[in-house]
Amino acid sequence: xxxxxxxxxxxxxxxxxxxxxxxxxxxxxxxxxxxxxxxxxxxxxxxxxxxxxxxxxxxxxxxxxxxxxxxxxxxxxxxxxxxxxxxxxxxxxxxxxxxxxxxxxxxxxxxxxxxxx
Length: 117
Hints:
Layout: E1 2-7, E2 10-13, E3 18-26, E4 33-39, E5 45-51, E6 59-60, E7 68-73, E8 78-83, E9 92-100, E10 103-107, E11 111-116
Parallel strand pairs: 2-11
Antiparallel strand pairs: 1-3, 3-8, 4-5, 4-9, 5-6, 7-8, 9-10, 9-11
């Protein structure tokens, strides 16, 4: 079992930045790929970025490539999502997930990000 807790969400103006954190406890954090997802009102959950345990180059969706950066610190059992140049359409609940065998197995509770125009 892995417990994940996101933090760092909030209200920001368009063009601003936020950094989300995903703190993990339980089973060995470094065993998992950590993914970031979001869900906007009335829409399905969207994949954003995945960071492997080795710290290699993260994999990004086209919708956030160049604006968002995923990273992780295995020593701190924490993953991060740096979000720059935010747009109103980035407004959503953001989730982190521990991914095993290609599927999200454990989810955090989510953190709200609201971008005002």
